[in-house]
Amino acid sequence: MPGLxxxxxxxxxxxxxxxxxxxxxxxxxxxxxxxxxxxxxxEIHDTASPLSAPLAHYLSKSKPTKSFLQxxxxxxxxxxDIQFLASHLIYWRKARAIPPLHQRDTYIVSPxxxxxxxxxxxxxxxxxxxxxxxxxxxxxxLSTPRAYSTLIPSKDHKEAFMGILAWxxxxxxxxxxxxxxxxxVPPHIKATVExxxxxxxxxxxxxxxPPRRTGDDKEAKSTLALPQPxxxxxxxxxxxxxxxFRASQGVPTASLAxxxxxxxxxxxxxxxxxxxxxxxxxxxxxxxEGQKAWNNCVRYFDGKHAIETIAVQEGWKRKRVADFxxxxxxxxxxxxxxxx
Length: 340
What we know:
Blueprint: H1 22-26, E1 30-33, H2 37-47, H3 52-61, H4 68-75, H5 79-91, E2 95-98, E3 106-109, H6 118-128, H7 135-141, H8 158-170, E4 174-185, H9 187-195, E5 259-261, H10 270-297, H11 310-314, H12 318-330, E6 334-339
Antiparallel strand pairs: 1-2, 3-4, 4-5, 4-6
Helix pairs in contact: 2-3, 9-10
């Protein structure tokens, strides 16, 4: 439907959402005002409600680039008060809860953007941002996925361009393109598990070993086979493999294909053993820090939790998360996909 808000991001967790409470997760969201601040403040003052003063004070401190928690820490407003005031604005459809806007995130033209309204929207945009690229130009640049920072010409333009982004999101012209990941079990990890004698022949439903190429498929079930990228970790002579497979053990990696673990938090049987083997492999290749990071992050790799949320949830720098993700992906331990 043209103009309909399009995103999978929600400020409220599912029942099994990483064992976090609603308030904990909501603290990492912020408000996107659905009309101009001056209009909302005018309506608040006209109501003469006991909440008018607290709402006006909160709105004077609120920014779509800062989370509820960050606003609380910088303004001194208690977090529960911010969440209460924010829920009030959301209820009266004056705002929407969103992940904080960030220049390093990727934003694209929304599939639901109402292009029939482009002419009138362009005129409104020009009045708000007269000295900046036109609306058609911005939408053209965002038609190809890229970090939003690539549109910002200098630090002096950052605030203005973040204002443009908030306006584009508010009216449904763009949406955030988010990244999701699943744990990928490479053949050499499967070989390690089998060679240690940990794998049971009753296949786990969440990760399955494909039939051998020798024709013995009595215990085989369907599995999602993925192409294996060239990697030194898949070599039998690699020094990076925690427990390298030896051909004499009778488990050739050429007879195995990679698979996915769709929900690491509910892994059992073979899937759990594969995760343990991966953790040991990460310890060998990236050290104790890398293994600790993997153990903290693996719960997010279920295709439901965006990678962009890891830095906020774990309290890490974005670059640290990006470096770990890149390393695990290079090792063939992750499969990534992107959608809103």
